[in-house]
Amino acid sequence: xxxxxxxxxxxxxxxxxxxxxxxxxxxxxxxxxxxxxxxxxxxxxxxxxxxxxxxxxxxxxxxxxxxxxxxxxxxxxxxxxxxxxxxxxxxxxxxxxxxxxxxxxxxxxxxxxxxxxxxxxxxxxxxxxxxxxxxxxxxxxxxxxxxxxxxxxxxxxxxxxxx
Length: 163
Known about the structure:
alpha+beta; 2-C-methyl-D-erythritol 2,4-cyclodiphosphate synthase; single chain; EC 4.6.1.12; CATH 3.30.1330.50; 5 helices; MECDP_synthase; 30% strand
């Protein structure tokens, strides 16, 4: 049975390490610390991949891009987003909107939010008005609030392409 709307949600968190690059939504954010991960570590893109996969009930980031796959080594996570957007369309759906937010207490993200939105909308193949990116500091609470980690959440709404 075709469902009129489907929702997916995603979350990712990575520790931050001095001397590494911080990439969020495909934007290199100036920061004294960044991700030490298999891909570029972009938690915002990773959360969005999980949300897209969840909306079509097709696994998660690790299902599509396993850590032990050499092809994913140092990969650009925005490419993962584009791949999953293609799978959403192949499943007969279109993306209605995406809502995301990032928590990082030690680096100001506001100056970079618009560039993140643009990158994500381009990777998704949707209009900029369909993508929201917000940031929070957590007021110094938790690992993300103290700068030991960075977290992101994403929610996506999809609808049948025939609608």
